[in-house]
Design a protein that fits this description.
Layout lengths: L2 H8 L4 E3 L14 E3 H14 L25 H18 L3 E12 L4 E10 L5 E9 L7
Antiparallel strand pairs: 1-2, 3-4, 4-5
Length: about 140
């Protein structure tokens, strides 16, 4: 596949503001992201946003912060998987989530990874994303 054809296939993925929002140092232009990077940044932003945090889009967000300080067990794992799956299904129309898994990385420090496998709706190309999540508050300031 030549570059022009690949660009046409990737155009549906979109281009938007990079997250976190930043500007180039030389000409102060807004930095944007495109294609796979744009979707991964969108997933990251969506999972970090608390439901109701955006007044004009109160349903936007994952609600993952409600699980902070919960006991790390199978019930929590299932609740997080359900929250992530439903959030992405409702708020990210460019992808179809095929699998969500939660791995407890460090139980003592409350660290886990949320692994998300998804396909682009237009091309059925498979990708995945790892979202680091901590159950305990940060104390290394």
């Amino acid at each position: 596949m030549d570059n022009l054809q690949k660009q046409r296939n990737d155009n549906f993925l979109g281009t938007g503001w990079a997250f976190p929002v930043s500007f180039s140092s030389g000409n102060y232009q807004l930095i944007t992201s495109a294609y796979e990077k744009n979707i991964n940044e969108s997933i990251d932003l969506l999972l970090q946003t608390i439901k109701g945090e955006r007044p004009l889009s109160p349903a936007y967000g994952s609600g993952l912060r409600q699980f902070v300080f919960n006991k790390m067990d199978e019930t929590l794992r299932g609740r997080i998987i359900d929250a992530v799956f439903n959030t992405l299904r409702q708020n990210e129309p460019r992808i179809t989530v095929t699998e969500v898994a939660v791995n407890y990385i460090d139980m003592l420090n409350g660290q886990m990874e949320v692994l998300i496998a998804y396909e682009y709706n237009q091309t059925n190309t498979r990708h995945n994303y790892v979202f680091p999540f901590s159950i305990k508050e940060g104390t290394s300031l």
